[in-house]
Amino acid sequence: MTLASLDEHAPRRTLWRLPVRDTWLVRIALVIVVLLAIAAIAAPLVAPYDPNAVELTRRLQGPSLAHWLGTDHLGRDELTRLIYGTRVSLGSVALCIVLIMTLAIAVGGASGYLGGRVDQAVMRFCDIFLAFPTIVLALFLIGILGTGMGNVVIAIALSHFAWYARMVRGLVLSFRQRDFVLAARAAGAGRVRIFFEHLFPAIMAQMIVLATLDIGHMMLHVAGLSFLGLGVQTPTAEWGVMINDARQFVWSNPMLIVWPGLALLLSVMAFNILGDAVRDRLDPSLHGDHQH
Amino acid sequence: MAGFIIRRLLLLIPILLGVSILMFVIIRMAPGDPAVAYLKLSNIPPTPSAVAEARHTLGLDRPILSQYASWIGNAVKGDFGVSHVTRRPVIDDIMHFLPATLQLAGVALLFTLVVSVPLGIWSARYKDRWPDHLVRGFAFVGVSTPSFWLGFLLVLLFSLTLKWLPPMGKGGWQHMIMPVLAVSFMSLAINARLLRASMLETASARHVLYARLRGLSDRRVERSHILRNAMLPIVTATGMHVGELLGGTLVIESVFGWPGIGRYAVTAIYSRDFPVIQCFTLFLVTIFVLCNLVVDILYAWLDPRIRLNAEAAL
Amino acid sequence: MRGVLVGALLGIAATIAPASGVVAQTLNFSWPANVGPLNPHAYAPSQMFAQGMVYESLVKYQPDGTVAPWLAASWTTSEDGRTYTFKLRDDVTFSNGETFDAAAVVANLETVMANRKSHDWLELISQFHSVKALADFTVELQLKDPYYPLLQELALVRPVRFLAPSQLPASGNTEEGVKAPIGTGPWKLVETRLGEYDVFERNDSYWGQKPAYEKIVVKVIADSNTRAVALETGDIDLIYGDEGPITPDTFARLKAQGYQGEISPPLGTQAIALNTNKAPTNDLAVRQAINHAIDKDTLISTIYHGTQTRADTLFAPTAPYSDVGLKPYGFDAALAASLLDKAGWTLAPGADFRAKDGQPLQIDLAYIGTDAVMKSVAEVLQADLAKVGIEARLLGEEANAFYARQTDGNFGMIFGNTWGAPYDPHAFVSSMRVPAHADYQAQLGLPDKAKIDAEIGQALTSTDETKRQELYTDILTRLHDEAVYLPLTYSTAMLVARDNVGNLTFGATSFDYPFADLKPKD
């Protein structure tokens, strides 16, 4: 089965490429990503308030010295909730990536190593997953498993892992033919050792490149599904949910909808820039279209 | 060409069968008994006897293979069962809500192509000058913007502040402007960026250099030599946009109150209405796969090499 | 290019600007869903407000609590209170021209009686013994027991209104559906577009006062926020309803912008049922603590913008038989905490929430996830309860799943409403005996549940006014002392209209929509 168009992922990865010479952009992106990480890890220390402290008497206030970004419909501090929101966004995406990598190495590795019928079967299995648009697969899985952040993570991982599995399989196949692997095997090295010494680092390098390029995309999916009310449960602060909560105050407090979206936009952008940079650094072979 | 198309169509059958089997297996593996879910939606207390009765009604007490066979058999005839919530045949509901979604996604796809191609050409023509920077900057922001959030920003601007456009619902063409913009923004950005890169690449290709040496004008070279070849990646990308646009439409419908299948599906998900979820998924996957098929065919038509290779591979 | 763009924009502006100068004969309204098949004897997905537009009852409920003649011009009651004889109006036709007569009443009531199980929430139907036509326009209704709320319940929107007999299915059983929704009411349904709108036209052969509007278009708008915007852009002219057609925030904002906005007198009670049959709310101390932990006044002045008033008891003291001198559970977080301490629910050092014998004080609070106001209230309750060490887990679900929880009792706390006039208190307490109701499920853990149910039955059929009051007093006191409910607010209906709608009024109950009284104006 060679549905050429199902290989769509390959072009996507190179689409938002920025010229790497714009290093100031990469630096800014790096700063943003580091700030996000700090915000996520040290939220209780950095955030000025308790994210779930409802204080009805000061609800829907505009920006002030006490509340830099104002308060939401329950009087909770908007900035605090934005900061706590990074935990969900980054945490869920990190979980997705770990899941994807595990699945991809298991499935793709088995396929590449065992070859033959198993390989055929596994690749057909991956084709099935690739036939789903991401959101549709996610909606289906959440529909069956029920709503909640855990299921959102599973859904996103399952809708992405097939690309990674294919890549792992490709790497394994090409490695099996390489001279040094053949030599190592001739010298009596076991499969496991060859795998961990030679193959694993290469697979990880490639996967990290792909994953960094996908982080932004996954963040958007997480937020989108949460926006539909399928993700986190209240009172957990999450950007997609905050956008959904703010929609009924679009007239009176439009900034409530602007802030979480802006946070999402900036984070996704920073990860996209960084993804490009990492790819250029680690994987010059993907430079196909980079001729200008 | 006809043989190519037929072979491709036949290849869809195993894919769709695989998708349906996968869905079936996941539903059976999932926690929670569909019979209990069914009883809850029917306002019947799930006593053991009621559950047993429901399992029988729903055919859950039969061997899984026979369940699958009868489900797929009915599905082929267009019978996807009855929604546990609305009590209407699922297929009726789906056919009712699907056209609005397809309309929105289709217009968005058209809009993506119509706008991104000139943008890409413009950007490539003025490489490293301000139009190029502008388009690339736009492409970069576009790729990172959450579509549902963009939808709200558009409502803020065009409905609430300027009062130019209706904020919600389905009606005249005015109702489509903002949803289409929000849905297609990302694909548009990707496409423009892709066409630019592809044009620049083709522009440095040998046959283009020869054409220039033959003294053809820049515009002429651009039109007859660069663009046609540069369109190939666009065609590929379009296949992927169909998925993105469909998915994006499902989310955006909830922003603009668009009476499409996305909101219907979300409601079904909330109430765990399995027949609806199954049918919805199968339909969208089919549409997605069919669109990719069309793209493949287009691609093969534009570039005979692909067709020949593919036929050789079969 | 630029010219074209400007032209296009002007075009948009022109098409959006509302037409002025002509008095619109069409009222644009909105509802979260299509009105449904409008089977007068069935429930969801038929929408009650629309059933009320198309079908009429024998008698009509008045704002003062009495009932007035309607399709029945007069009636008499037998000595023993078991036989009612109705003299029907002889000038009424269905909107398709059929005569409304005794045969029509019998055909309708018989199919309702045949499907008693579907209506077991309503005691009236169980009390029906038989119905027969004595003459062309005379009907006799036999009851099993003397049932005092009979007339009130005959005024209900469903299931005792009348479909044209020709529209009954072949079997005569409306459980199978109806051919077309033909009633005697001032409106007739002429078009339905799924997911988009329903259109009603004035019934020009209506026997009573004909409505001023010719046509009502009911647009499907699920989201309350979108509904408000639709009013502002002129897509709809009227927002009306008792179940939060728009949020109180939006109501306040629209009123500030100069739209006509009204709040009805209190209708029913918004009360949260506490499940006595499920840990940890099976502990009386926990239920009492919950009642003391909630700061209702702040909730009302902020989230509700004062559009509702505080409720301290399940039924407002103004409801019949309900002024029984119950002592409110006041807001007192310290008292709540000490009640919990005494009952053994203690706070370990450093912990946020209490526990007892290793069991955490954790309660599921179910609400409808798509209802923005209910969600806000749930979040406030969660925060208030957290302050006394109770962990409320919010379960925001789609409406159907939510109602399923009410039915099967799978909740710790769940939102609910009493039904308001003319149901409160008799029909509401009556339904407490039906397993498919949240109230039954919530009360299941009470040691005296059987006694309460028995007393409800006696109160409904007692012919002695003093005895009936005594029974109600006992029932309401038991429920209050056992803290089965957390009454929050007395709910109201709200109405917002554009300037082109005049003669704004509220219906006598929350189920009567006053479309026929509204008048267009410039």
From TrEMBL, chain A:
Instruction: Please tell me whether the keyword Isomerase is annotated for this protein.
Output: no
* Protein's recorded name: Nickel ABC transporter permease subunit NikC
- The question of whether Signal is a record keyword is answered with no
Which locations, inside or outside the cell, does it occupy?
Cell membrane
Q: Which family does it belong to?
A: Belongs to the binding-protein-dependent transport system permease family.
- Give the ABC transmembrane type-1 domain ranges: 82-275
Q: Which UniProt keywords apply?
A: Cell membrane, Membrane, Peptide transport, Protein transport, Transmembrane, Transmembrane helix, Transport
User: Topology with regard to the membrane?
Assistant: Multi-pass membrane protein
**InterPro entries of this UniProt entry?**
BP-dependent_transpt_permease, MetI-like, MetI-like_sf, Nickel_NikC, OppC_N
A Pfam family assignment: OppC_N
Domain of life, per the record?
Bacteria
Q: Where are the transmembrane segments?
A: 24-47, 90-116, 128-146, 152-173, 194-213, 256-275
* Major localisation: membrane
PANTHER family associated with the record: D,D-DIPEPTIDE TRANSPORT SYSTEM PERMEASE PROTEIN DDPC-RELATED, OLIGOPEPTIDE TRANSPORT SYSTEM PERMEASE PROTEIN APPC
TrEMBL record, chain B:
Q: What residue ranges are annotated as transmembrane?
A: 9-30, 102-122, 134-160, 172-190, 280-302
Principal location = membrane
The entry's localization annotation reads:
Cell membrane
Keywords, ordered alphabetically: Cell membrane, Ion transport, Membrane, Nickel, Nickel transport, Transmembrane, Transmembrane helix, Transport
Q: Does the keyword ATP-binding apply?
A: no
User: InterPro entries, from UniProt?
Assistant: BPD_transp_1_N, MetI-like, MetI-like_sf, Nickel_NikB, Opp2B
From the UniProt annotation, give the residues forming the signal peptide: none
Query: What's its membrane topology?
Result: Multi-pass membrane protein
Q: Which residues form the ABC transmembrane type-1 domain?
A: 98-295
Give yes or no: UniProt keyword Ion transport.
yes
PANTHER family, alphabetized: DIPEPTIDE TRANSPORT SYSTEM PERMEASE PROTEIN DPPB-RELATED (PTHR43163)
What protein family does this chain belong to? Belongs to the binding-protein-dependent transport system permease family. OppBC subfamily.
Official protein name in the record: Nickel ABC transporter permease subunit NikB
Name its species.
Kaistia terrae
UniProtKB/TrEMBL annotation, chain C:
Entries under Gene3D superfamilies matching the protein: Dipeptide-binding Protein, Domain 3 (3.10.105.10), Periplasmic binding protein-like II (3.40.190.10)
Primary location class: periplasm
Localization per record: Periplasm
Q: Where is the Solute-binding protein family domain?
A: 67-435
UniProtKB keywords: Signal
Tree of life domain: Bacteria
Q: Which residues form the signal peptide?
A: 1-19
Q: What CDD domains does this protein map onto?
A: PBP2_NikA
Q: Which SUPFAM superfamilies match?
A: Periplasmic binding protein-like II (SSF53850)
The family this protein is said to belong to: Belongs to the bacterial solute-binding protein 5 family.
Protein name, please? Nickel ABC transporter substrate-binding protein
Organism of origin is Kaistia terrae
Gene behind this chain? nikA
